[in-house]
Inverse folding.
């Protein structure tokens, strides 16, 4: 078992630090862990029908064995249901069940369930305790850690939300066995991102073990989850509200979000779009003279080894730039990017549109196009 601490809050009075626990078979011990944290009485397990059918039975047993009295609320499976309308139905159920301020909400599922349940926990009765039990690789290494919660708005993704930290994150790597291969790989894109932005040794580990990881690995996947969580924990501890350092977690995401938007959020999974976006960000870094071409090739080769896409054929460069300009993270017309200097080290820069377009030529040269 490995425990990673997310250090948050100044001094003992405002200590919002919490543990991320990673262990095989942990699903069966969540109730005991919550009892040890001081939880008792009623709680709500929020999941969806897919994950619920696979795992809610075990989690419910464990919660009961820990002395808790759980109620299950299911939200529909799918990004299209990450809405205020669905959240509102959850509030209705919580009120009907007469849940109170001390009644914890436990999120069992991928990033969609975690983001929605977290937003419910942040807002119901002005905030109730929140526990994350992430079940996709993306949720285990990214969305469950760091306190970003929220839902989509018809005009854009994740536009409604709150920073609200969980009290604990319980990660059972064994649940990845039932995850679809494409979902696993989409999570691996975020794992690779941590190597690029923070830790060259970790990146080398991923290179050496790419085949095992893409085949969902044995202990390699557990190491990858642990290291990814510790890097995210470190970044979030230093900059909880994304006023500076935390934005490096968006490496590949400015391009990635635009690719997702231009393809109607259907052709690429988020992690796949980020995979293409990381190669584009690396090409931009090369074309600005920040890093040699071999850095970009190393990133691209690892993504290819993991079975991830590294190009988005059919997307027009001009459309991509225009879509990035509309992104909510673009300030005063200038497009900001996280760019790589070397594996393990990135910088944030504003880049003129002409320079971005110039970098596309480098990409097509590398792909032989
Ligand atoms: N809060 C954050 O910091 C943050 C960060 C990144 C992404 N996100 C959000 O995360 C969401 C994407 O999350 P995701 O990629 O986990 O997608 P998801 O939650 O839609 O899960 C993908 C699919 O896998 C299924 N599933 C989940 N666990 C499973 C398991 N163990 N076995 C079999 N099937 C399983 C789900 O039911 C779903 O059909 C997006 O809404 C995105 O905005 C949030």
């Amino acid at each position: 078992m490995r425990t990673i601490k997310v250090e948050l809050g100044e001094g003992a009075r405002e200590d919002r630090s919490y543990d991320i626990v990673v262990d095989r078979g942990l699903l069966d011990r969540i109730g005991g862990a919550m009892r040890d944290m001081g939880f008792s009485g009623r709680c709500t397990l929020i999941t969806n029908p897919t994950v619920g059918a696979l795992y809610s039975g075990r989690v419910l047993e464990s919660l009961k064995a820990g002395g808790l009295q759980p109620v299950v609320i299911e939200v529909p499976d799918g990004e299209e249901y990450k809405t205020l309308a669905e959240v509102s139905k959850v509030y209705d159920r919580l009120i009907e069940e007469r849940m109170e301020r001390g009644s914890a909400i436990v999120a069992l599922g991928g990033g969609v369930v975690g983001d929605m349940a977290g937003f419910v926990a942040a807002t119901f009765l002005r905030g109730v305790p929140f526990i994350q039990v992430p079940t996709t690789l993306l949720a285990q290494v990214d969305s469950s850690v760091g306190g970003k919660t929220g839902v989509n708005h018809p005009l854009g993704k994740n536009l409604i939300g709150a920073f609200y930290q969980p009290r604990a994150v319980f990660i059972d790597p064994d649940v990845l066995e039932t995850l679809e291969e494409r979902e696993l790989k989409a999570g691996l894109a975020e794992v690779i991102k941590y190597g690029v932005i923070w830790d060259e040794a970790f990146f080398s580990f991923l290179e050496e073990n790419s085949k095992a990881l893409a085949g969902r690995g044995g202990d390699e996947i557990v190491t990858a989850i642990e290291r990814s969580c510790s890097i995210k924990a470190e970044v979030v501890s230093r900059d909880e509200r994304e006023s500076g350092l935390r934005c490096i977690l968006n490496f590949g995401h400015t391009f990635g979000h635009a690719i997702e938007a231009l393809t109607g959020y259907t052709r690429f999974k988020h992690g796949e779009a980020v995979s293409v976006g990381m190669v584009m960000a690396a090409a931009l870094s090369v074309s600005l003279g920040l890093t040699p071409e071999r850095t970009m090739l190393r990133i691209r080769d690892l993504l290819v080894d993991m079975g991830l896409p590294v190009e988005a054929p059919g997307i027009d460069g001009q459309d991509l730039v225009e879509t990035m300009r509309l992104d909510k993270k673009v300030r005063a017309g200038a497009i900001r990017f996280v760019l790589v200097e070397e594996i393990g080290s990135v910088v944030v820069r504003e880049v003129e549109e002409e320079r971005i377009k110039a970098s596309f030529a480098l990409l097509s040269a590398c792909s032989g196009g």
Observations:
- Residues 219-238 form the longest helix (20 residues).
- The chain is about 45% helix and 20% strand.
